[in-house]
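Dear colleagues,

As part of the handover before I leave the project, I'm documenting each prediction I ran so the next person doesn't have to rerun anything. This entry is a single chain, and its sequence is reproduced below.
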Amino acid sequence: MGVPLTGPCEHLLIVNDDPESQQLIQDCLNDGGYETTLVSDIPAALTYLQWNHVDLVLLDLGMKDADPLKMLKELCSTYSELPIIVLSHFGTIEQTAEALKLNVMDYLRKPFHPEMVLFSVSNSLKRMKLMQENRKYREQLEVANRELQRRLEEVQADQQAGKLVQQRMLPPSPYRLMDYKFTHRIIPADYLSGDYVEYHQVSDTKLVFFLVDVTGHGASSAFVTVMMKQLAIRSRRHFQKEQRREVNSAAWMLKWINKNLLDADLGRHLTIFLGVIDKETRQLNYSYGGHFPQAIMSIGDDVRYLEGRGLPVGLFEGAEYEDVYMPLPKKFGLTVFSDGVLEILPQKSLQEKEARLLELVKETNHRVDLMIQRLGENEIRRAPDDISVLSLQTV
């Protein structure tokens, strides 16, 4: 008859008490390739549905001695995924309207053409199949979402634990070493930070301090900060006085760190400003490992950037670094920022941003809490990169 079948051997239940109509519908559906069962009353239909699989029901609303709407409500309630097509006369328009409110698939008015019956059955079966597939997809999606939520909660718990570990790795702040007060603040862009600060004494007269900015941020970059902590621990143990070893220079330490990172093959490199203070000679020795912006030193009213340059650490085999030496006055301050601070400064040009950092350090006299306050902590927490500040002052 020209109407494609939905699938092989769908089983249809016809509920109709009109012999002429029964035969017409059954012949039409059988010719269309469907398997049909015919019942003439409501109890027989309910009994049949209870014990047999049915793919679709055709229900005549004009049956005598029955309440088809009552049965329809029971069918829709009991068999919610069973597609139902109602058959009606012009005189049962109110019943038809009530039936449609129950979300039946379709309705056909008598007299009907066989082509229309086949089209309605085929379309209803396709719609029900699509609805069942959609429900299955929704259920699968809900399961996947629950699993995703569970894993996300696990990741967040792991990140929180990792964040706590990172915080415990950092040196205390504020903290006094020899004649200097160190203060720092790290505000990560994510749970975990790729920035790290360290300061520790390596002999009776020398201390080392540095600020590290690992490329990127998050878990992979945070792992490198753990390695930097381990290197700091090794440096303290390795350069103890009783071992008769001393820090050769800041550049020598950068070369040592560079080798360790390359040997670890972590796929991450970093920028670093590293300084060595010799209390006995009152001298600062520092070196840059690709770090920017440069460290800021103030001596009285003179606030300026410390000159120097160098390659990133952990990127090039055999990289060489530059040592800079300068005498230290009795009173001075020094502040180092990670480059994330440049992201939140409102100035447009790099030159203007650098000038603003000089002003900020001068206004706050190297006080980290005041610098964070004036930069705007809310703005910092929305920054796309980690922001760190390390400051030291004479006491």
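The first strand starts at residue 11 and ends at 15. The mean pLDDT is 84.

All the best with the project,
I.
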